[in-house]
From TrEMBL:
One of its GO terms (molecular function) is pyridoxal phosphate binding. PROSITE patterns: AA_TRANSFER_CLASS_1 (PS00105). The lineage of its organism: Bacteria, Pseudomonadati, Bacteroidota, Chitinophagia, Chitinophagales. Its cofactor is pyridoxal 5'-phosphate. InterPro entries: Aminotransferase_I/II_large (IPR004839), AspAT/PAT-like (IPR050596), NHTrfase_class1_PyrdxlP-BS (IPR004838), PyrdxlP-dep_Trfase (IPR015424), PyrdxlP-dep_Trfase_major (IPR015421), PyrdxlP-dep_Trfase_small (IPR015422). Keywords: Aminotransferase, Pyridoxal phosphate, Transferase. It comes from Chitinophaga costaii. The keyword Aminoacyl-tRNA synthetase does not apply. Its EC number is 2.6.1.-. One of its GO terms (biological process) is amino acid metabolic process. This is Aminotransferase.
Length: 398
């Protein structure tokens, strides 16, 4: 029988990141020693005190539906986190807890984007942004950011991209995939532009807040004139090594929070009761795990950045946050090995996967087709082996 699926499915694609992770797993299952640099999650375990809180929650009977936007004390703990870490004032009612930052982004896009609305996305960007806008029939305006400006949009580029139809601007800092981090001065420059366009919502994805090597995290919500335009996306996946727990949240103006609550009430009802109890413990505790992860990530970043810079043909930026490298690999386009020619980043990723047995992600999925993304959320030993293989196999292309 032919299965008639809805038209919207043809408008979106499965994330390239998830596809590559799946391919790597398949090759590993065949016994091939794959160095997986495609992964987007910390290779650390959730801290013990957080896991203990989840076990306690089960024993105490937290096994029922929760309020859609999360337990009241969890929303209060998130509001308190914003005061503690970001000096931002939000009430608990302005916080909506979700099944991961990804759902928070979906809540936002579904709540504000009408068909034909324009959404500005600077490239490179995280894969899900564009697909959610496509699901809602929004028109995406990509703004290409150059490696010379460390892949960050300038106020002039932003001003030029905004039209009366612009509804939403979507960005992350620290950025996945480039690792770029906007300084306070850079955010202030963008905020001045947004102040002139109060109809534009600003999605500030701060999921990598704690994984920042350049100093304290800065949020664009800190500028009072535009604070109500900003929707902060955050969650526990990266900073607390809790990807599988599925816990994200937003902070926004109250009418938006109410909209997210309404959307979520029809999609998921809420995230897991157990994850929410564990999240209270995570958010009210210390940040020692995040700090020790960052120190480890910093060592790996220095190691892999130096290693990649030494490979002829790779143009490497220096990431200031997150755990990804995003080298420009266009020097290899047109080169061949044993009759196989590399036409684009997808070809190079497949070449690296099947020949070097190193898994990476092609930059096209992030809107920057001249690059590939490598995650350094893996051991130094594996990074060392991965670099060696990359050097050897890229060297064979001529
Ligand atoms: N935003 C960015 C920039 C991400 O990299 C990710 C995860 N890869 C998410 C959001 C989604 O995070 P979560 O696991 O909380 O859904």
């Amino acid at each position: 029988m032919t299965f008639q699926l809805a038209e919207r499915l043809s408008r979106i694609s499965e994330p390239q990141t998830i596809k590559m992770a799946k391919l790597s797993r398949e090759l590993k299952a065949q016994g091939i020693d794959i160095i997986d640099l495609s992964i987007g999650e910390p290779d650390f375990d959730t801290p013990v005190h957080i896991r203990d809180a989840a076990k306690k929650a089960l024993d105490e009977g937290y096994t029922h539906y929760t309020p859609v936007a999360g337990y009241a004390d969890l929303r209060a703990a998130v509001a308190q986190k914003f005061k503690r870490d970001n000096k931002l004032d939000y009430t608990a009612e302005q916080i909506v807890v979700s099944t991961g930052a990804k759902q928070s982004i979906a809540n936002l896009v579904l709540s504000v984007v009408n068909p034909g609305d324009e959404v500005i996305i600077p490239t490179p960007y995280w894969v899900t942004y564009s697909e959610l806008v496509r699901l809602c029939h929004g028109d995406i305006k990509f703004v290409a950011c150059s490696v010379e400006n460390n892949y960050k949009i300038t106020p002039a580029q932003l001003e030029a991209a905004i039209t009366p139809k612009t509804k939403l601007f979507m960005f992350s800092s620290p950025c996945n995939p480039s690792g770029s981090v906007y300084s306070k001065a850079e955010l202030e420059g963008l905020a001045a532009v947004f102040q002139r366009h109060p109809q534009v919502y600003i999605m500030s994805d701060e999921i990598y807040e704690y994984i920042n090597y350049s100093g304290p995290h800065e949020s664009i919500a800190q500028f009072p004139a535009i604070k109500d335009q900003v929707i902060i996306i955050n969650g526990l996946s990266k900073g607390f090594a809790m990807t599988g727990w599925r816990l994200g949240y937003t902070a926004s103006a109250l009418p938006l929070a109410k909209a997210f609550d309404k959307i979520q009430s029809q999609f998921t009802s809420a995230t897991s009761s157990i994850s929410q109890r564990a999240a209270v413990t995570a958010l009210t505790g210390d940040l020692l795990t995040a700090q020790s992860m960052v120190e480890e990530f910093r060592k790996r970043r220095d190691f892999i950045a130096a290693g990649l810079a030494a490979i002829p043909g790779l143009k490497v930026n220096e990431p200031e946050g997150a755990f990804y490298m995003f080298p420009d690999i266009s020097a290899f386009f047109g080169k061949s090995f044993e009759g196989e020619t590399i036409e684009n980043a997808d070809d190079l990723c497949m070449f690296l996967l099947h020949k070097a047995h190193v898994s990476t992600v092609a930059g096209g999925a992030f809107g920057t087709p001249n690059c590939i993304r490598l995650s350094y959320a893996t051991s130094m030993d594996k990074l060392g082996k991965g670099l060696e293989r990359l050097g050897t196999w890229l060297g064979k292309l001529s």
